[in-house]
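Sequence, please.
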């Protein structure tokens, strides 16, 4: 059913170490950063940081040129929240130049120096003079993001909850069902608070699946952004289980649900401060706001059935999200409703090969199990705790909470016929 194992004993050599290192960092607040670089080797990782989703609220500008360029620039321009300066100057020359830089900088601006001398005396003098951090080149994306995070995300702050966005490759593939059962399993297994946000305001099913009928929910929050705070959102949450809460969709058509790209950002930011895990049930539409939600989520799970159109849509989603999230792992994949009687299907191995993914889980078609659970407003773990599907969802919960990781992917033979039919690969000569 699943292909999982603890990663400590079997690390995946294909994982970018930068991507693995930055997963611990929280989003950076709305700040301005300007960097003055003397080499492309330093400018490039800073530019990569600027593209990272954790920096979505920050504004980053990279200039070529060192301390002298910064001094000239700030003689006629205001200084940002953070200045990053690369310098090849010798230690004493660097200190003299920084004294001149201090004359044109606002006292509240933070300064990070990237130098080329591994000198303890220099480090102490820089810290004594008010520099926030001294780094020795070469530096990586993780080094830069770590320094920015250390400076602007205080250690005393409460940790932000992890957002996991579920989206279907097509309508009707069971993405919402998987999301809701995963949320319930996580809250039950780990006795940890989980919030489900049903983002399909017109046709959401979370209230039915959890047998809830709240008078208010996510619509009140998204249509009244000026009221959003932790107290207000707490009033909108419906309690589904001891550690599980629901931000329900109205599931009515009395109005249209057109939103700006950032309409849900404030809601998600606020919920993150109240629960360690937030499950975002994203509808199968492609709009500015769904693109924004998927881009900013910590993890993405795509649910698909083993059919050709699902493969095409999944491939499009995976490729697009990799471009939108260049410093994050690829989305995870759940193949659902496998083995439906009389339906021609693509095997799991053939489905995954053009995606370059290993499935997080392959869930078999079981109309009785899922139908009875839905009709009774219960999760499948409540209906049949010993069912193999329940074990699969439990393992998914371990992966998505970081308690277990997937096995490294194994190469499979190609399936050129599918690639040609879907026009997903390069044209053969």
């Amino acid at each position: 059913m699943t292909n999982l194992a603890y990663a400590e004993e079997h690390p995946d050599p294909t994982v970018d170490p930068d991507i693995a290192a930055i997963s611990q960092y929280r989003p950076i607040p709305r700040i301005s950063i300007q960097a003055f670089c003397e080499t492309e080797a330093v400018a490039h990782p800073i530019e990569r940081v600027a593209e990272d989703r954790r920096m979505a609220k920050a504004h980053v500008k990279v200039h070529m040129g060192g301390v002298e360029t910064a001094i000239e620039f700030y003689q006629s321009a205001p200084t940002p929240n953070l200045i990053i300066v690369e310098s090849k100057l010798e230690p004493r020359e660097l200190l003299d130049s920084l004294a001149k830089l201090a004359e044109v900088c606002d006292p509240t601006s933070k300064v990070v120096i990237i130098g080329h001398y591994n000198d303890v005396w220099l480090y102490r003098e820089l810290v004594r003079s008010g520099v926030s951090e001294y780094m020795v080149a070469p530096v990586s994306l993780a080094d830069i993001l770590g320094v920015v995070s250390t400076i602007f995300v205080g250690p005393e702050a409460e940790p932000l909850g992890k957002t996991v966005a579920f989206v279907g490759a097509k309508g009707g593939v069971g993405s919402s069902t998987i999301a809701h059962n995963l949320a319930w399993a996580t809250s039950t297994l780990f006795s940890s608070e989980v919030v489900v946000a049903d983002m399909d305001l017109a046709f959401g099913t979370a209230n039915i699946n959890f047998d809830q009928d709240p008078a208010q929910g996510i619509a009140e929050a998204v249509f009244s952004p000026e009221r959003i705070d932790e107290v207000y959102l707490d009033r909108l949450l419906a309690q589904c289980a001891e550690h599980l809460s629901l931000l329900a969709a109205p599931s009515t058509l009395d109005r249209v649900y057109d939103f700006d790209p950032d309409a849900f950002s404030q809601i998600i930011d606020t919920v993150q401060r109240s629960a360690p895990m937030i499950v975002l049930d994203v509808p199968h539409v492609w709009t500015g706001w769904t693109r924004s939600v998927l881009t900013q989520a910590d993890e993405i799970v795509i649910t698909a059935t083993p059919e050709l159109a699902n493969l095409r849509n999944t491939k499009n989603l995976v490729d697009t999200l990799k471009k939108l999230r260049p410093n994050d792992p690829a989305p995870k994949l759940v193949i659902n409703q496998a083995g439906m009687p009389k339906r021609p299907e693509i095997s799991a191995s053939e489905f995954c090969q053009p995606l370059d993914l290993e499935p997080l889980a392959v869930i078999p078609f079981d109309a009785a199990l899922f139908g009875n659970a839905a009709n009774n407003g219960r999760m499948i773990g409540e209906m049949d705790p010993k069912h193999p599907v329940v074990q699969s969802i439990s393992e998914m919960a371990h992966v998505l909470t970081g308690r277990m990781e997937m096995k490294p992917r194994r190469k499979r033979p190609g399936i050129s016929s599918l690639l040609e039919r879907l026009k997903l690969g390069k044209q053969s000569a």
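The first helix runs from residue 17 to 22.
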